[in-house]
Amino acid sequence: EVHLLESGGDWVQPGGSLRLSCAASGFIFSNCAMSWVRQAPGKGLEWVSTITDSGGSTSYADSVKGRFTISRDNSKNTLFLQMNSLRAEDTAIYYCARYSNLDSWGQGTLVTVSS
Amino acid sequence: DVVMTQFPLSLPVTLGQPASISCRSSQSLVHSDGNTYLNWFQQRPGQSPRRLIYKVSNRDSGVPDRFSGSGSGTDFTLKISRVEAEDVGVYYCMQATHWPRTFGQGTKLEIK
């Protein structure tokens, strides 16, 4: 069974940084592209970023391009999202999901950006 | 970017009755590989989203057969043949043909 467990969410001031992690199990992680999707409080879903299985290619939403970096460690079955220059509008639950087709999701981790 | 437009945004339904949600894309979702990557997700209150349907009409494992997807090109539909109490939540369409991936605004299904 696919299992994705996000961690690293926290409260941070505007301009600050945070690194999210997603621990994967139940499938061959190194064979799968992985994605981050976020949901602001009371709002809809927004795709954030996707990384290929090898980590050789990445894609980002315009809203985070240049500030967020997706990466992975296939030896540890872990996906990351480094978030810099955080803004109030980045406040959201961040979900990791398998593939860019999002067939399985984690439970999410909350990021709050506020002064 | 491909804009995904869902309607209705609010859907009150009587238990046991059918329900239908429409999703329209601003451009064709037919990929160069011939597939159409249109997915439907369900998000129950307080839960993570769950994929129900992929490539327009394929149900994910464990999804009841009362859920069905149809459509082509730019117009797609999610149908629930007989709504049950556990179907309450928000439904999203999402296209995975073009970058960036984009979602519809969501349709909130509630029981009348």
Protein architecture, described:
The complex is a heterodimer of chains A (115) and B (112). Chain A is an all-beta fold and 115 residues long. Helix content of chain A is 0%, strand content 48%. Chain A contains no helices and ten strands. Chain A has strands spanning 3-7, 11-12, 18-25, 34-39, 45-51, 58-60, 68-73, 78-83, 92-98, 109-113. In chain A, the strands form two sheets. In chain A, strands 2-10-9-4-5-6 form a six-stranded mixed beta sheet, with no helix packed on it. The radius of gyration of chain A is 13 Å and the shape is globular. The model of chain A has no long low-confidence stretch (mean pLDDT 97). Chain B is mainly β and 112 residues long. In chain B, strand 7 (67-72) and strand 8 form a beta hairpin. The mean pLDDT of chain B is 98. The chains are: A mainly beta (115), B mainly beta (112).
